[in-house]
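Why show two proteins at once? Because comparison is the fastest way to build intuition. When a single record is shown, students tend to memorize it. When two are placed side by side, the eye starts asking what differs. So, the first record is below.
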Amino acid sequence: MGKSNLKTVMQLLLVVVIVGMGSLLARRPAHADDQSLNRVKQSGTLTVGTAPDYPPFEFQVNKGGNQEDVGMDIDIAKQIAKNLHVKLKIKNMSFESLLVAVQSGKIDMAIGGINPTPERKQNADFSKIYYSGGQDFLINKNDAGQIKNKNSLRGKKVGTQTGTLQQSLAKKDIPNAHVVGMDKTPDLVLALKTHKVAAVGVEKPVAQAYVANDHDLKAIDSGYKLNKNDVGTAIAFKKGNTSLVNAVNQSIDQIHKKNLIPQYLKDAGKHMKVNTNNTSMWHYWKYFATGVEYTLIISVVSVFFGIILGIILVLMRLSKYKFLSWPSIAYTEFVRGTPMMVQVLFVYFGLGVLVNIPALTAGIIAVSLNSGAYVSEIIRGGINAVDKGQSEASRSLGLSKKDMMASVILPQAFKNIWPALGNEFITIIKDSSIVSIIGVTEIVYELNIVRADTYRGVAPIAVAMILYFILSFSLSRVLNYFERRMNHD
């Protein structure tokens, strides 16, 4: 069997192991003796996942530079935790990660304007409907004369949040419409205001919230013919967590009995007005400062461990023993052949089922593992670039292979690859934004929070671009300084 075939076999085996592991985790049966409610009470904490970019359901307010989760859904979660006599712990992440977090046990329940569609019910349990608001379209006010309802959108571009009911309804009920899916509602609104889409499908309270804070927008009724599930939102749970679902349903019944939903919406409206009183980017400087801090932490730690892993991988690859070189080749090719976003999700949710890894730690692990594969190839290129005469001279002096590599080859290789390593560091700074998908704070995560809070689409993006440029430019100057020092030496 040739070397290329062996490498292919190793890659396929690695894929089979990972896919098989994911399948086993996904198919693990629920415990016959459901202890979900007891686990929450014994831990004393109810962990709730949400995506805080969907006012008035859930969003964040800036109180003295500190972030606080607020909104109707947050108030409901607080009431549920109060009834269970436990503390509430909120985990923020992207909307598309909520159900995965529930299934993998990262959170006890997910709340975030989630519609309990038949497809979602196959993979998660749901509470009773706690709110029914209906569906609207956001449009530019200047287009109000042309767009009246869904029938007016025939053949036009319609924006929806990816993986939501609004996306399914638009695809099904608007003939010849080109449905544009995006992950964040603020991105959709920005696309609407820049005429990239003709309308954005959202729930009525969300449409009303945007219209109240942006006079260039108008909300119109969708015109969809909806059943009960289409107009309702519920709380998602892991399959088989019946006792916890029943306890939450009792809280929902109590909330409806006391008619607390209108008060929750009213409170959300007050918070939204606080956010829009001062929408200057300077008012949110602590948000961006926090994002820069965590971006640097993730980047520095990931590059450090990435270099260590890269050295190990390249030494394995250069080994004469096939049982060391083949795994190194397979790992490098596999990691370089898969998106970092998928790797981040797998480390946090896949491996997280076996080991409860915090989001920040999971993000650093994933970025480090990814960086290690690229660094190993950079180092290998540097080693190959070292003149063969250096090896011959080392052997003539009686140096062992280990000493030759540590004292002669690697120092010269690092001098050769310093610019490439610098580029890898800069790339990691920019690519660290991917970890925001699992709720890790960094620049892009804070950018989306500020956009949702202030209803300003472009200004937060401009601030983030400037911050990334400052970080990258400053790092490149430092790297160039040390490169000149090495060349001088």
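Second record. Ask yourself what differs from the first in the token line.
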Amino acid sequence: MSDFLLDPNVVFLNHGSFGACPRPVFEEYQHWQRKLETQPVKFLARDLPELLADARSQVANYLGAQPTEIVFVPNPTFAANTIARCLDLGEGDEVLITDHEYGACRFAFQFAGSKKGFRVVEQAIPLPVESDQAVADTFWQGVTDRTKLIFISHITSATALTLPIPEICQRAREAGILTMIDGAHAPGQIDVDLGQLGADFYTATCHKWMCAPKGSGVFYVREDRQQLIEPLVVGWGWGPEKTFHRDNEFIEHHEWLGTHDPSAYLTVPTAIAWQQQHITPEVRQRSRDLVHTAVQQASLIEGIERVHPDSFFYQMGLIDVTTLQVDADALKIWLYDTHRIEAPTIRWNGRTFIRVSAHAYTTEQDIQHLLHALGELPNQHQLRQA
């Protein structure tokens, strides 16, 4: 798709890491940056509150939430730190996660736990998985009477696994356990309705599958849970001399982080509009089919295996090259330097994966190029692990 600014000489199969911003969305982003620099005081001190309110309203509608339940954040790592640092967790409490969680967010909870005294418990979910029910049952084995918070991904980063979030959230609510969902890879790749999902807290990246500019994310806190969350950064929105006067204390406390460029946030509505116009269900299905093709055909190559049943992944899939005993870092370099393929190689629980992402710009030729490169892998002795 010509809307994207990606280098045409690179086979870009890594939308999952940082996304890719379409040209019309990027031009809107630059428009907001120029507007900011034209009159910074007017823009930041007088115009920004209403601009953010309008953008927040559109994002909330896209995600099935209320505008008063969402604030913009730079990324999900920021939101995870907010929960880990500010939620009332202490000695004897446990935060339950899976062994598939994104490193930066896992570190946020481990760091806060080392200061506040709570434990981060990792529940293993072995691969391959069989069914949503089996995943939920396996995860629930980690719950104890000390579990105060569940923090899990909607779609995992390392293993591209879609977890049964509604089932887990329902069980948690019945048990009186709070839930925080890392939705970095979900909105834009699958439909998300926060009102129906049942999570207490949810964070999402807008600059991945929603194709907004880098540094745009959202943090959802259900209205009846907002009193539990303090601001990670205390600024003008907190004190009695508030910079902006609004009726909603949650937004006042969390939205104003000091001087920063809000252009990425203000561009998210344009990204949503672009998505709704161009990323139809048929386009999503085509992207999913391309990933399924890559995973299935790669598994026919000697030494390469597949990981998930088709029902567990969408526009990201895993190719398991563990038995080839290749070095993950050397493999990533070889894919790029030799074949101009941009795809992440992942080490997880002693296994080595190539994660393949497909979006509207991905072609059948891109997938065939990857498969051709993978066909050379069994003979690449220089990539063997030490």
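One difference worth noting in the second protein: The chain has two domains: 23-275, 280-380.
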